[in-house]
Design goal:
globular; alpha/beta; six-stranded mixed sheet; 9 helices; GMP Synthetase, Chain A, domain 3; three-stranded mixed sheet
């Protein structure tokens, strides 16, 4: 029987691309689930992760950055982000530590003004600024909305993240846990593996290529090492999808060097995730303008049923 003091609820992280949403969520749950990079629009799907402690359970929803859509993939990402605002108990709005509030932030502020959900203003990346400046950033934002809380943090360094967790639990409703205590995410392993491969592509490739890259897992199969060895190995066959023939050459690299680098880096993280040896085989295919194809978007995991 559940303790009447147990709290459980849903918390979404929103903000402009590259503001640190995935980094913060990974830190709060203590495990890497969402991929990160220094390029915008890294997160494309709504990713749920779970934190459980003696106080109850927080289900974090990491969303794509809210931005001006340029294609169907962009529209999908923005729809996913904006729809979650109406489905949660607390909204964490992450912003850069700055006194300048641009059109993108004002657009997010306008969306948040339409909801009744408690909104926390999270000023991220405070490790990169002088602490004496933080009050100026708070002053710049405080009148945009009636914020439930304003909390400066460093997702990268973990500064003030305990205070953030305490504040979240304060606003959650009482109720039973939604997930088992050992649940970390609702994402299928295949999807996390595909995202880890895409992360390595994002980090290693040139600026114009990453937005046009998707990853499809063709096979993920477990087999035994052999008669005289213990343990298992997982064979993973994956395809990196790009939009142009010229991009395919860059992804493969001279003598296959870039593809090998992406595969090597991805394999290490996948082995950490799955806790076993991995045989990762990568291929590259060109699918022109896949980001504007409803069929291909669905095929690569961006399901139209999630759209408004």
């Amino acid at each position: 029987m559940q303790d009447n003091n147990t709290k459980s609820g849903f918390v979404t992280l929103i903000g402009r691309p590259n503001v640190g949403k995935s980094t913060l969520m990974n830190h709060l749950i203590g495990q890497k689930i969402a991929i990160t990079s220094n390029k915008p629009q890294t997160t494309r799907n709504k990713i749920q992760t779970v934190h459980t402690d003696e106080r109850g359970q927080i289900i974090f929803i990491d969303t794509p950055g809210i931005h001006k859509a340029k294609n169907k993939l962009g529209e999908y990402m923005v729809n996913v982000a904006e729809r979650t605002l109406r489905e949660v108990d607390v909204v964490l709005w992450l912003v850069e530590p700055s006194t300048f509030i641009g059109a993108g932030e004002r657009h997010i502020g306008d969306q948040l003004a339409k909801i009744k959900t408690p909104v926390f203003l999270i000023i991220n990346k405070i490790d990169k600024v002088n602490k004496n400046e933080i009050l100026k950033f708070i002053e710049a934002y405080k009148d945009i909305l009636d914020f439930a809380e304003i909390i400066p943090v460093s997702a990268l360094k973990g500064e003030n993240t305990k205070e953030l967790m305490d504040a979240i639990f304060k606003y959650l409703p009482f109720g039973p846990k939604y997930f088992d205590e050992d649940t970390i995410t609702d994402q299928p392993e295949r999807q996390i593996v595909a995202e880890l491969i895409r992360e390595k592509a994002l980090r290693n490739l040139e600026e114009e290529i990453p937005h046009g890259v998707a990853v499809s897992i063709e096979q993920m199969k477990e087999r035994s090492y052999g008669k005289n060895q213990s343990g298992d190995i997982i064979d993973i066959h994956a395809t990196i999808i790009c939009e142009r023939d010229s991009h395919k050459g860059i992804i493969i690299g001279k003598g296959g060097a870039m593809l090998k680098k992406i595969g090597s880096q991805a394999r290490q993280e996948i082995e950490n995730l799955l806790d076993c040896q991995v045989n990762l085989q990568l291929w590259v295919k060109v699918k022109k303008d896949w980001r504007d194809s409803d069929f291909l978007l669905k095929n690569y995991g961006y399901n139209n049923k999630d759209m408004i």
